[in-house]
Amino acid sequence: MNLVYSDSQGNVFDHPDFLALGRNAEMITEILDDELIPLPEGSTLVSLPFTRPVGIDATTGEMKLVEGDYHAVGALLPQGFTRLLLPGYVKSDKTKALPLFGYTAVVWKEDGFYVAARLTDNPYFWNPIHCDPDELEVEVKRLTAKYPENRLYAHLSNCALGYECLTASNTFLQRWEGAVPVSYSCNAGCFGCISEQPDESGFVAPQTRMNFKPKVEEITEIMLEHLRTPESIISFGQGCEGEPSTQAVIIIDAIKRVREQTKMGYININTNAGLTDHIRGIVDAGLDLMRVSTISALDDHYNAYYKPRAYTLKNVEKSLRYATDKGVITSINYLVFPGVTDREEEIEAMIEFVRRTGLKLIQLRNLNIDPESYLSIIPKAQGELLGMKQMIEIFEQELPDVVIGSYSHTPKFYTSDRALTTVL
């Protein structure tokens, strides 16, 4: 398997004499054949700025840098695929941070590009190829014209057309999981926030956070437009907003108004679940699904990344337990990172957390972050690194009633045969 790298113009090459390497946190490691799958449809190859590619000289067996002005290459995977290794590289400028993406090790074999990843959910619904840009533009124009005073539709039009957000696009295409952002504020200061970063962070947020408080009427218009089929999902809590439960009053009002008019589809919230009293009110109003973002079930790691304001991981657990007990289908949006999530102590803590909260689904999401910056703020490993592949296998063995996936599903999914396997 050949090393893949790029020049300063973005041209991608495979090295005829260097074997590819990957990274598990700070450790550069070989890539095994059973860790590789063909580059998935919908993936993007990207050059990693401020890096040098590292490989193994096939002749001498030595680890070497590629000479010249070249950069490491990584793959950005679509939803449904979980990375097992980072690309093999060293920083050429350690003061610079990589853009906030989830870089995956990529190699060249005799018949094409391969990545160190595993299929963990059905990729069809989140493959960008199934979002026709011409159809999307037509639907954006139709709905923004139908609701000219609705600021949420105007905001989401930029998310769909400008940022190419698939959840926002679904809102206009009126299918699958659609977005209804509600909050401009947050009760956490996430180190890797994709919508708001302090000037001193060194990161550039790839999205702009919404800057207004929507009216209940604006929210209900979007919800009623989207909830037209039995399998439709409308979701509070998007990458372009803060924590949705900070706007619990308007969410509760909107849910009640919508459910007075239709029982169709499912209402979901993507949340950090730190505001337990707010979450209880939202659940009681008629919530169907809840996905809670977390990076760890260990307090020191969780706090280092999320920087929670006036809540703790124990509040998150209470929120999940309450929702589960009330019949809400609960899951976690588990931000995973090779060399961290697969630590022995992280795996043990997460298994116990899942058991205590009664989750039905672990959504594995590749953490979008500069690796060096992330590793500098979190606790050092205490136990053995088991590897991402083995971590997933342990979850499957220890949590047989919990589905391993990548995104939210409707209740029908959990009662079908598809829920018995992780590869759909």
TrEMBL record:
SUPFAM superfamilies to which the protein is assigned, alphabetical: Radical SAM enzymes
Record-annotated Radical SAM core domain positions: 181-351
Residues passing through the membrane, by range: none
Entry-linked InterPro entries: Aldolase_TIM, Organic_radical-activating, rSAM, rSAM_sf
Necessary cofactors: [4Fe-4S] cluster
Keywords: 4Fe-4S, Iron, Iron-sulfur, Metal-binding, S-adenosyl-L-methionine
Gene3D superfamilies per the UniProt record, alphabetical: Aldolase class I (3.20.20.70)
Gene Ontology molecular function: 4 iron, 4 sulfur cluster binding; catalytic activity; metal ion binding
Annotated PANTHER family: PYRUVATE FORMATE-LYASE 1-ACTIVATING ENZYME, PYRUVATE FORMATE-LYASE-ACTIVATING ENZYME
UniProt name for this protein: Radical SAM protein
Source organism (scientific name): Paenibacillus pectinilyticus
